[in-house]
């Protein structure tokens, strides 16, 4: 939030120096390449000061005037603010919190780990697949911190080391988030900012998720087996007592009650229905972007999805028999826990309002247009990925990063003749790749601390995988750009 507050003031000051200009727009509102021209912003100093003051408000429910294009809270036109995404984040936060309050998800993962405790390779692969699936559909990452108390003893009992537990947790969930298919906090926010459907590009992201998850699991399993055969090759080393643990130290298998099973079924059905509701099936199956939608397509967006997760939160409360009071308080708690990413989205959108009202967005876009000219679509997609790496470091919030970057990146895709969905994929891959190792994320620093592994040793462990993933990502986004 502090970074975005500084960015807001910095952009406001730069708007005094950057000349105003605009592109002509087509029927869909997208800028037409080669039509940029200088215009006057028509703003006085008082107008600009008012924009700075109202930036967070406009970022939430600013209305864009259909005639002037100016954004303000009391104008008439289309919603420009992020109110829809804002409520969606709170709704899914409420749903996830209610699910965790039932204990079903924790118990399910614990039971899986316990049942595979004597089959090390399957244990690592099974847990990583579950974490990766949760990461790709709902941004599961920080939640892994609660499983180190289970994973570390399990790995040590199987003859592995603490680094194997760190790799299983951080990389399992991290690669899922990197290849987010419908993750609302990454793909969802970015798709909204790029003005495309959440389901656009899901085929490419799904294949990418399959390949990168398999590669990451193979990497962690290979390391764990190596340590099991030659303990001296452990990068984390062993603490006193680590080598004396046995598989029986894992305790009794946690039991799944009928309620837990019912909650897990509801969880799976809700996310499956979300995927079904947002995928443009006619375009996905025919390969034609302008294909006529099938009769069963829902074409849902953030308003409907917010309602879905609010209803699902209540349904889980009923299934788990939490009672009216606990269900209500847990929904409120969940919305409160997720207010931070929601506010980040609002603040980032406020920055784009300042750029819009001072009419410098198209000027910035025009300055980059020359870079796009003459580049192949594949190279353009790789450039988008690389350019977003330092931005992901400066703005570790995926939601804030997406809201800030997409208004510039999405029109650039139009100029390069590349699908906006490919730009979303390249952006989220950059954000996810950085979050596998940067020290500004709680997932990484918290994970190595809980496992009692040095951060420097974790970097030694993960850097070869980072190189492999970097190459694969570049290949996938280049291929996606070429195909579209």
Automatic annotation (TrEMBL):
Topology in the lipid bilayer: Multi-pass membrane protein
Protein localization: Cell membrane
Organism, scientific name: Streptomyces noboritoensis
Protein name (record): YfcC family protein
Keyword Transferase: no
Transmembrane segments: 79-101, 122-141, 147-163, 170-190, 202-221, 262-282, 302-323, 375-396, 408-430, 436-455, 462-483
Keywords: Cell membrane, Membrane, Transmembrane, Transmembrane helix
Main subcellular location: membrane
Matching PANTHER family: ARGININE REPRESSOR (PTHR43652:SF6), BASIC AMINO ACID ANTIPORTER YFCC-RELATED (PTHR43652)
């Amino acid at each position: 939030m502090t970074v975005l507050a500084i960015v807001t003031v910095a952009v406001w000051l730069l708007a005094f120096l950057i000349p105003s200009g605009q592109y002509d727009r087509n029927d869909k509102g997208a800028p037409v390449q080669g039509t940029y021209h200088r215009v006057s912003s028509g703003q006085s100093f008082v107008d600009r000061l008012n924009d700075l003051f109202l930036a967070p408000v406009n970022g939430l429910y600013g209305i864009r005037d259909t005639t002037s294009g100016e954004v303000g809270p009391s104008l008439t036109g289309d919603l420009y603010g992020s109110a829809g995404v804002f409520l969606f984040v709170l709704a899914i936060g409420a749903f996830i919190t209610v699910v965790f309050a039932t204990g079903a998800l924790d118990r399910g993962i614990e039971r899986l780990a316990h049942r595979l405790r004597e089959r090390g390779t399957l244990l690592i692969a099974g847990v990583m697949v579950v974490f990766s699936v949760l990461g790709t559909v709902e941004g599961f990452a920080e939640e892994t911190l609660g499983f180190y108390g289970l994973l570390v003893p399990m790995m040590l009992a199987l003859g592995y080391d603490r680094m194997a537990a760190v790799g299983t947790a951080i990389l399992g969930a991290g690669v899922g988030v990197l290849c987010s298919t419908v993750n609302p906090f990454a793909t969802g926010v970015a798709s909204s900012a790029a003005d495309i459907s959440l389901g656009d590009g899901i085929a490419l992201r799904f294949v990418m998720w399959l390949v990168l998850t398999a590669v990451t699991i193979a990497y962690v399993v290979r390391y764990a087996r190596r340590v099991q055969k030659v303990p001296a090759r452990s990068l984390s080393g062993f603490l006193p007592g680590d080598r004396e643990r046995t598989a029986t130290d894992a305790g009794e298998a946690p039991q799944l009650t009928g309620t837990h099973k019912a909650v897990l079924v509801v969880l799976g059905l809700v996310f499956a229905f979300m995927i079904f509701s947002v995928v443009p099936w006619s375009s996905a199956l025919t390969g034609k972007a302008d294909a006529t939608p099938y009769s069963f397509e829902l074409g849902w967006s953030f308003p409907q999805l917010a309602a879905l997760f609010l209803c699902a939160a209540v349904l889980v409360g009923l299934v788990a028999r939490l009672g009216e009071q606990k269900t209500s308080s847990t929904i409120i708690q969940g919305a409160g826990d997720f207010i931070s990413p929601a506010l980040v989205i609002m603040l980032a959108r406020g920055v784009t309002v300042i750029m819009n009202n001072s009419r410098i967005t198209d000027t910035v876009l025009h300055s980059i247009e020359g870079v796009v000219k003459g580049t192949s679509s594949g190279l353009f997609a790789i450039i988008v990925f690389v350019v977003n790496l330092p931005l992901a470091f400066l703005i570790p919030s995926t939601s804030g990063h997406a809201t800030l970057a997409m208004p510039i990146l999405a029109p650039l895709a139009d100029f390069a003749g590349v699908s906006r969905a490919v730009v979303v994929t390249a952006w989220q891959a950059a954000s996810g790749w950085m979050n596998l190792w940067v020290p500004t994320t709680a997932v990484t620093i918290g994970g190595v601390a809980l496992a009692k592994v040095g951060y420097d040793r974790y970097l030694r462990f993960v850097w070869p995988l980072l190189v492999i993933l970097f190459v694969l990502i570049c290949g996938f986004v280049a291929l996606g750009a070429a195909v579209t």
